[in-house]
Structure formats: C-alpha cells, structure tokens
Amino acid sequence: MPNKYCVANWKMNFNGQQGQDFFEVLNSKDLNKGQSQIILCPSYTSLFSIVGASKNSAISVGAQNVHYEDSGAFTGEISVKMLNEASVEFVIIGHSERRHVFGETDEMIHAKMLQSIQNGITPILCIGERLDERESGNTDKVLRAQLEVGLSDVKGEYIIAYEPVWAIGTGQSATSEMVVETHASIRSILTELNVSEKVSLLYGGSVSPQNASALAAVENVDGFLIGGASLDVDRFYSIYVNL
C-alpha cells in the first residue's frame, strides 16, 4: 500500500519565529492519531531552524522548490546541495504557481526530479489542469503530458500530488466525484508508464477540515498537499487526524 502524507506548503508566509511557534504547537499535539506522515514545507529562511526542531519529533521537513543545476549564475535560486546542507528530506516540484507564475516547463520540472532523487531528496511532483482545460475535456491529456515528461527515466522514491489549478487558494475544492474520477485516471496513466502502485498520490486544492474526511475516504487518495489551511495549526491538525 502507498504511504500516506499530510504536507503543509506554507508558501511565502511565516517568518522564523512564526514557523517555530507553529511547529511547537503542532508537535505538542497527539501525532499518533493520524495514519500519515506530516511534512512541513517552510520558506528557505526557516529550513534550518525547522529541521533542527524536528530532529526528535515525528515531523519531517521539505523545501518548496529547488533548481536543476548544482551551482551557477542563477540569482535567487537554491541548489539541491544547499538543501542537502539543510538536511531536508523532501522538496515540492512543479507546483502550479511555479508553472504558471514563474514559467517553469515540464522539461525543467523533469530535470529537477532527476536532480533531487540523485541527491537523496524525495520530490513531491505536482500536476494539475487549469479551469479552461477541465471545461474543454482536456484534463487527462494535460495530466498525461505532465506525467510523461516529468517522470521520464526517473528512478527512485517520489510522491505525486494532483492539484487542480482552479481549486488552489480559491476555496473551490474538487468534489469527491471529481477526485474519484481524476485519481483513477492518474493511476491508469501511471500503470501505463510502469510506475509502481506504491507511489503515493496526494490531493491538493482548498483542502479544509470541512472536506478532509470525505476526500480522505476517496480511493487512490493517499494524503493531502495543503496550502491555506496549513497556516493555522488547529485547522491543519484537524485535517491530519482525518487521514
């Protein structure tokens, strides 16, 4: 069976002290109630402090992005070697905000997948369609293209997160029926690509304490990648205990 994960993507939120406060409150709760692994993904400036705090806890730490080169003239970027130095275990790759705001291509995302795995960090590959692509009936086509390029010749451990772009940060979550259909389709594509059934498939997109239980019950949902609701420790914990 795939492992289950509850991933917090803090995006460009929380300074160092706020991140520490969140961690301390979360770590004081009963983290044996959920069946999933918690992964916190803070901003780069908080990675060292959150990793340090997490060493004797059940909480893991991931980064929100990484570059595909070891080093070079890439102002503002972070290399996988730098993430190794911070001792993070996971990294989010191909989030829709990276694709659509910063112009990352499937080929760039593929290079990041290879770079991360080759350096011992487990990538969380994000895939998802825009609203116009869903309304035109092209969801499967879009997801297939993202998976075919993103996973080409990729060997090793990774996680996949399906996040419909139209549901991220909008408060408009995909219905359980949509998630059932889309996750089943993704599993079918992964089978065609000879990807192990043990690869975890997460859902993301306006996940909340109100819809977490219904979404967690959907077949092929192995956890959540959570944005806005991960900024409130009690809301995040409420989602975690439903997995």
List the helices and strands and how they pair.
Blueprint: E1 5-9, H1 16-27, E2 37-41, H2 47-54, E3 59-63, H3 80-86, E4 90-93, H4 96-100, H5 106-118, E5 122-127, H6 131-135, H7 139-150, E6 159-162, H8 176-192, E7 201-203, H9 212-216, E8 223-226, H10 233-240
Parallel strand pairs: 1-2, 1-8, 2-3, 3-4, 4-5, 5-6, 6-7
Fold and architecture overview:
This protein has about 240 residues and is α/β, with parallel strands linked by helices. It has a single domain, classed as Aldolase class I (TIM Barrel), CATH 3.20.20. Helices cover about 40% and strands about 15% of the residues. It contains ten helices and eight strands. It has an eight-stranded parallel beta sheet with strand order 7-6-5-4-3-2-1-8. Helix 5 crosses helix 7. The two termini are about 15 Å apart. The model has no long low-confidence stretch (mean pLDDT about 95).
